[in-house]
Amino acid sequence: MSPVTFFESEIEKIKNQFPILNQSIYGHPLVYLDNAATTQKPFSVIKSIEEYYTHYNSNIHRGVHYLSEKATAAYENSRIKISNFIHSVSPKEVIFTRGTTEGINLVAQSFVKNRLQKNDEILISHMEHHSNIVPWQLISEEKGANLKIIPITEEGELDLKEFERLISERTKFISIVHISNSLGTINPVKKIIEIAHRNSIPVLIDGAQSAPHLTINVTEMDCDFYVFSGHKLYGPTGIGVLYGKKEHLESMKPWQGGGDMIRSVTFEKTIYNDIPYKFEAGTPDIAGAIGLGIAIDFISGIGLEKIQNHENILLNYATTKLSEFTGLKIIGTAKRKAAVVSFVMEGIHPHDTGTVLDRKGIAVRTGHHCTQPVMQRYNIPATTRASFGIYNTQDDIDKLLEGLREVMRILG
């Protein structure tokens, strides 16, 4: 029996670990296909948060009593798990944030802004999430710098020739999404980083969509920064990670001031704490950090290779079936894609599609997916997006297809 077949036989057991999936919506069993927006949470993650608040709720790093020591140990143990998960050189390179958005803003304000002069340039791509556009616009406007955009092809792939052409002696930073949340494209980030580093340009990788689906090795990738969110990784909302190379983090000034990010404070001078604490001002989301560590345990227990194989089967099946659907066009047909399929239906607005599907218990995402420039690139207002996770099956896709036939019957 092949590993993939074995894994498929285990899907029902895995699905049963997610309590939210065991319910009906409008009289239909829930089919959850909105994983690119947020994933559902297994019992183990939910239980870890309940366990913290029930048995050892306390602030960390500041107490000598039992509860504080236990909370601190659990919090720091999660940092070690995350470091191992992304293969960083040291847990000190792992900063807890509220999510991908905060990680990008932290790098923009604390690392990039002070390195920018008037007419300097930052490179991003046409497929970026708004979280990887607006922070760079803000500091570019403040410093008189220019934001340059790497174009994408009709298939939804980066134009790498144009990328190399856009690099100049004024280029000071590059920030690129690893996997597009609206197109599913997997970008060749290692190649992008190699080109950038040949020109002495640091690179941030937005890993919000890649951390749940790909094996991440930030050391081998050689990125300068990598950011991701817990809630897309079967973990809690409100918690995320910024990885940064040690030399960068040590050179950066804190973004926020407050407790725990200091070594000593007087009215004359404050001495900052060592990394990673220098960037973790105030009481953090302790329960969230612990829950994220448990989510990583959950993923590691199954194995990312099995997860990738399963999701690729779903992606290929959905792509084949949707391609055969009359009046439907898939947006984003890159050669390398993750488990995301976005599409439009002739003469039907995606919001209407989503509403009909919802009444059949099928949860998809409709809209611009916080990538309005992508929608403008394809001259469409929005798409319907189905995105797959560890608990999805081919039967879920078949129900989606049944739902789309109902959409055509009612609205087509």
Provide an overview of this structure.
The chain has 412 residues and is an alpha/beta fold. It has 2 domains: 3-38 and 303-411, Aspartate Aminotransferase, domain 1; 46-300, Aspartate Aminotransferase, domain 2. Helix content is 41%, strand content 17%. The protein has helices at 3-15, 43-55, 66-86, 100-112, 134-143, 160-166, 189-198, 218-221, 246-251, 286-302, 304-323, 350-358, 372-377, 394-411, and strands spanning 24-25, 28-29, 31-32, 94-97, 121-125, 146-150, 171-177, 203-206, 225-229, 240-244, 262-265, 270-272, 328-331, 340-345, 362-363, 365-367, 383-387. A 7-stranded mixed sheet has the order 4-10-9-8-7-5-6, with helices on both faces. Strands 13-14-17-16 form a 4-stranded antiparallel sheet, covered by helices on one side. Strands 1-2 form a two-stranded antiparallel sheet. Helix 3 (66-86) packs across helix 10.
